[in-house]
Amino acid sequence: MISDMNPVDNILYVADSYKITHHNQYPEGTTHVYSYFESRGGKFDKVCFFGLQYIMKRWLVGPVVNRQIVQQAKHFYKVHFGNLDLFNEEGWNYIVDKHGGTLPLRIKAVPEGTVVPVKNVLFTVENTDPAVPWLTNWFETLLVQVWYPMTVCTNSRAQKEIIAGFLRDTTDSVAGLPFKLHDFGYRGASSVESAGIGGAAHLVNFMGTDTIAGLQLCRKFYSCPMAGFSIPAAEHSTITTWREIGESDAYKNMLTQFPEGLVSVVSDSYDIFRAVSDIWGDELRDQVIARGEKGCLVIRPDSGDPATVVLKVLNILSEKFPCKKNSKGYKVLPSYLRVMQVGSFSTSISEIYVSPLICYGISYETIDNILTKITGEGWSAENVVFGTGGALLQKLDRDTQKCAFKCSNVIINGESRNVCKNPSTDSGKRSKKGRLTLERTADGEYKTVEEGKGDPAKDVLQLVYENGRLVVDWTLDMIRERAEIDLVKEVKAREQTSDVVNGLNKKDTAVPAH
Fold first, then answer.
1. In CA terms, which of 124, 230, 410, 446 is 20 to 30 Å from 275?
2. Helix ranges restricted to H, 329-472
3. Looking at the predicted structure, is the pLDDT value of residue 358 above 90?
4. Cα(180)–Cα(365) distance, rounded to whole angstroms?
5. Buried residues in 289-317 as b, exposed as e (16+ CB within 10 A)
6. What is the mean pLDDT of residues 299-326?
């Protein structure tokens, strides 16, 4: 493998070209530039903040620039700009000589995993050395890329809220929720790095994934040895190579090769309904039931209209296998048709894999429709777990949440100036003024206070980076706790209260020792 295959290995290449010319565009006497990042609106009215720590650890921590890097950049930009000497060689060499190649910047941000309404400040950036005011917005290009993990995380969390609502209404427990939306988006991502960043963002909300890059990112950047889980599964090639005449043998082979734990078998290579009815429901029925003593079968449709296909598959299975009704009166498939209960996992994990069917073609827009249809026909939401791919990691862009990074305060010749943009053609792009704080109001809501009028003691923004040093190192566990949806928090609170009450009752009824 060629060692220098990374297209960008120089910190001076992570800015847009026009940033190279900005150091001499500020008014004379400028010593300080203060900028901020926000979601100005978009698809969701709240965002779950995530991903800044990855960017800082990946690019900004420690000495990141030296004279060799500066000389490389000087040559590159001279050629790039048609032999013009526009690159700020003096400024970057100053950072090398004065700061040892570390960046004199300060970043304050909301803790990762925090859910904040749109149109609020999420992080601020400012230079800490008055000789390099241009440095703040040099890194706009890089830092704005937090839009991607934040938007994936927000989208994933919104889907979690939908699924949780149906589980609450149609099941006896929401314990299986962390495994209800499985990430199959690796191949649909634009790159391995994109898959890692987006896959990690999804793992803030769920624990089922086939996107290995996301697991590795969580391990390396968020102190989580194993953030998600998967199970043995077939793909179409491992079924179709048996040919249609051997479809039953292909399925039987899966049960034979994986005699214990969960196994997922894609079953729509030819006719999903015949496969469910005639093969799983008749030819292999006894083997499926017998295997239920040691594991569970996952039946996986992978084409057609999800809501229609899922409902029909459920109905066919109910004709072939004994179903029951839960305490809320909804139908549930038998335990040996469960999803994602892998024998190698501990019992505590495996017990919460309770869903007999995986559906694809899944997005925020389709999940509600599918669950509405099946629950409307008397099926519990616990019968379905969703797999999602491109819609999770690729069906979004920076404008999904209208993300922006803007300068709001400068110091020029010792004078502090609050600045903003306010285009007459688009009031939605008006930016904020002055130094900012993010504070909680009396009713617990977030509010951005502008023009330096906030109370620093109430500021939710925390110092996370300063002068090349990572100040706070969030773990994925911490982030997951902050990001948890209200419904789950309420369930956990009730369970804790019940445990306390039961504990007190046990004390009251205990027989004194003699």
1. 230
2. 347-350, 364-376, 390-393
3. no
4. 16
5. eebbeebbbbbbbbebebbebbbbbbbbb
6. 90
Name 508's Cβ contacts closer than 8 Å, sequence gap at least 6: none
Distance CA 78, CA 60 (A): 25
Amino acid letter for position 284: L
Say how far apart CA 28 and CA 24 lie, in whole Å.
8
86 - beta bridge partners? none
Query: Which amino acid, residue 405?
Result: F
β-sheet with 469-470: strand ranges across: 415-418, 403-412, 30-39, 121-127, 105-109, 462-466, 469-470
Q: Give residue 304's Cα distance to chain centre.
A: 27
Give every CB contact of residue 183 below 8 A, 6+ residues apart in sequence. Answer: 199, 202, 203, 206, 208, 209, 210, 211, 214, 228, 387, 388, 389, 392, 393
Question: Can you state the angle between helices 192-202 and 147-170, rounded to 10 degrees?
Answer: 40
pLDDT in tens, 138-191: 999 999 999 999 999 999 999 999 999 999 999 999 998 999 999 999 999 999
- From the list 133, 181, 135, 356, the residue with the least C-alpha distance to 264 is 356
Scanning the structure block, which residue is given the tokens 């773990």? Answer: 475
In whole angstroms, what is the distance from residue 46 CA to residue 295 CA?
Answer: 40
The one-letter amino acid code at 486 reads D
| Residue written as token pair 């690159």 | 87
- Give the span between the Cα atoms of 355 and 380, in whole angstroms: 10
The residue type found at 273 is F
The pLDDT confidence band at residue 379, using thresholds 50, 70 and 90, is very high
Token pair, residue 89, equals 């060689």
Per-residue model confidence as pLDDT tens digits over 66-93: 999 999 999 999 999 999 999 999 999 9
**Cβ atoms within 10 Å, residue 162:** 19
CA nearest 445: which of 201, 119, 154, 204? 119
In the chain, helix, strand, coil percent, each to 5? 45, 15, 40
The C-alpha angle 44, 46, 50, rounded to 5 degrees, equals 105
For residue 459, give the nearest of 433, 436, 437 by alpha carbon.
437
Name the residue with tokens 């699924």: 163
Supply the pTM of this predicted model. Answer: 0.92
Among 101-105, 236-240, 419-423, 484-488, where is mean pLDDT lowest?
A: 419-423
> Which pairing describes strands 295-300 and 261-266: parallel, antiparallel, or unpaired?
parallel
Q: DSSP assignment of 319-353, as one string? A: HHS--EE-TTS-EE--GGG-SS--TTS-HHHHTT-
